[in-house]
Amino acid sequence: MAVTRISNATIEEISKDRNNTLVTAVYRDRRNNRGEEQRILMVVGPGTVVVNMAGNRGNASDLSVGMIVNAIVSNNMTRSIPPQAEAFFVEIVRGGMENSTTIGRIVDVDRMGRNFTTIGEGNFISITRFNVPPNTPIINRMGRNIDFNGLVPGMRVEVRHANFMTNSIPPQTTALEVKVL
After folding, report:
1. Prediction pTM value
2. Which of 4, 94, 116, 154 has the smallest set of CB atoms within 10 Å of its CB?
3. Residue 22: beta bridge partners?
4. Are 139 and 178 in contact (CB under 8 A)?
């Protein structure tokens, strides 16, 4: 069986379907000299071996956003973006996600991609794209949850987000909570 080994991938998003945990991760593809950033949706099922930092066997519930993992996945991948593949083995290299808070003004909302871009307050060169998983709380000024579609350009927001950011332009990270100010 042909497999792909992935090293030092950062978990960006985790969701669940009936029987599996779906883990979106970003990593550098070292097979070419450019080391291009790649994304993959790993299907972590009941048969996937998950190993924690102590070397003990765990399960998919041990995985969280921001963790660094090594993985072995099937070469039989979908042609979707990101490609989807069954994970046979996931090793947690570094755990726990630290997070930061950014305050800025929304300049663009991508409803299909479920992300928005902000420009930082007082620092107009600070532009960041926030990917918003479906389970991320979005809170309006009254403290009530709102839908992602309630975010519009011009809104001032406080975003609690993962410390990691991609090297893309603009840099991207995962929003953990969004508050409209």
Report:
1. 0.56
2. 154
3. 15, 43
4. yes
